[in-house]
């Protein structure tokens, strides 16, 4: 089989890692792919830097269009990020009959339906293992390894920055702002960390996994997204006292009325393996009806872990180049004409358990008023702790864990509780999952 020529768009952190891994393991990769996979062209705006990294091993250009239009390029690897130029280049590569490998989760979550339809039309492949979980082979597991299963739910720590921050807040008893600065100093958080700490990055990844797991189109706009920036050290400590850890989870669940698609801070029992995933590591749980729970753990970012997934995609595409397009693994695991139109449930219809923290006046009858409101809305209490007031204070914290209930009922209860004259300020609400 003739060598496969690759064109790389962007030789930054992941692009550089991809070039290094492909060069270093070239012989091993060729043995697995059945042919040589050669980096023929590299495009990057920083031409001098790109030339220093590549040397004489590939053609270097500042014009990405040259790569996607070059007649000798078989596979285009897009690692420039963003949702504008990257989209134009990917669609142009597809129109030119080239296969695409990308790590661009934001692009796929928002425009994946259009990109996959274009690829289907041109009989080319779009591979995207590196878009979720860095080097963890979660996409391949969902698309192929678990294909016998009806996926019941997916839950994952899929953003290393937020997991590092929560780990540090718990271990050091520090506040969010303090730990965020440390994460930025260490290079784990961007100068503008919004996408990471507000859950947007995790929602992009969850959207992709849910589409593959449940056979639905990409629906990022329907996902509920809540970040960690409002979490306090007090809530992390209280959760620990009750036997729980707080993690930013992406959760997708199949329910009778639709799909839950949500990212938010979540209490998890401390005995669960996923609750003990610390620092910048990622972990994803998938429950199938036949296999039960499976867990995937590893580095969710970084040059070579992500490059591992990019190169694995290159090998997959190389292996499938001669296959009849109708017999390739579909982009979203299910045949394109068999995707489901099952709706994404609004957050008010989600059913889970809750952690509630209330600041109340230390007076008789307060607890009875609160529990009466919960009972009126059929919300039952699983556990409750009332903290002792500090000397000279008239207010105390009450922490409650509820049994499962519908979110709109919790919202109604919180509104009524906050209206009580003995309740100070807002009720803190964090969702709780047993993950069984």
3D structure, described in words:
By secondary structure, the chain is α/β, with parallel strands linked by helices. The chain has 15 helices and 17 strands. Strands 7, 8, 9, 10, 11, 12, 13, 14, 15, 16 and 17 form an eleven-stranded mixed β-sheet that branches. Strand 4, helix 5 and strand 5 form a beta-alpha-beta unit. The longest helix is centred in the first third of the chain and has 18 residues. It is elongated and about 80 Å long.
Give keywords.
single chain, eleven-stranded mixed sheet, alpha/beta, 436 residues, Alpha-Beta Plaits, Dihydrodipicolinate Reductase, domain 2, 3 domains
Task: Describe, in short, the structure shown.
This protein has 436 residues and is of the alpha/beta class. The chain has 15 helices and 17 strands.
């Amino acid at each position: 089989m003739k060598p496969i020529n690759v064109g790389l768009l962007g030789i930054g952190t992941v692009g550089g890692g991809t070039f290094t891994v492909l060069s270093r393991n070239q012989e091993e990769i060729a043995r697995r792919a059945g042919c040589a996979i050669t980096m023929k062209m590299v495009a990057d705006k920083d031409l001098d830097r790109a030339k220093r990294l590549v040397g004489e091993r590939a053609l270097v250009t500042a014009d990405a269009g040259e790569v996607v239009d070059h007649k000798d390029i078989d596979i285009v690897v897009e690692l420039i990020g963003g949702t504008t130029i990257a989209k134009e280049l990917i669609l142009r590569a597809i129109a030119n009959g080239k296969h695409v490998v990308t790590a661009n989760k934001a692009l796929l979550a928002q425009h994946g339906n259009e990109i996959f339809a274009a690829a289907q039309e041109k009989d080319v492949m779009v591979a995207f293992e590196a878009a979720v979980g860095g080097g963890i082979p979660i996409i391949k597991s969902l698309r192929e390894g678990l294909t016998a299963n009806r996926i019941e739910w997916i839950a994952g720590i899929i953003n290393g920055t937020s997991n590092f921050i929560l780990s540090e807040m718990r271990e050091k008893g520090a506040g969010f702002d303090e730990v965020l600065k440390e994460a930025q100093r260490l290079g784990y958080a961007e100068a503008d960390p919004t996408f990471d700490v507000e859950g947007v990055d995790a929602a992009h990844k969850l959207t992709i996994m849910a589409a593959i797991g449940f056979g639905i189109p990409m629906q990022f706009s329907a996902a509920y997204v809540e970040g960690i920036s409002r979490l306090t050290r007090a809530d992390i400590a209280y959760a620990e006292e009750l036997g729980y850890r707080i993690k930013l989870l992406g959760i997708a669940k199949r329910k009778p009325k639709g799909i839950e698609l949500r990212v938010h801070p979540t209490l998890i029992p401390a005995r669960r393996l996923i609750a003990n995933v610390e620092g910048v590591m990622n972990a994803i749980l998938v429950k199938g009806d036949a296999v039960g729970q499976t867990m995937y753990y590893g580095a969710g970012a970084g040059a070579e872990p992500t490059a591992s997934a990019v190169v694995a995609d290159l090998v997959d595409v190389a292996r499938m180049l001669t296959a009849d397009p109708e017999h390739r693994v579909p982009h979203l695991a299910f045949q394109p004409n068999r995707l489901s139109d099952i709706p994404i449930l609004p957050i008010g219809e989600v059913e889970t358990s809750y952690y509630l923290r209330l600041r109340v006046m230390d007076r008789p009858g307060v607890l009875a008023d609160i529990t009466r409101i919960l009972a009126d809305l059929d919300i039952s209490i699983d556990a409750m702790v009332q903290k002792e007031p500090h000397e000279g204070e008239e207010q105390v914290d009450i922490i409650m864990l509820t049994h499962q209930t519908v979110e709109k009922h919790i919202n109604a209860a919180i509104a009524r509780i906050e209206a009580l004259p003995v309740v100070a300020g807002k009720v803190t609400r964090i969702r709780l999952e047993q993950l069984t």
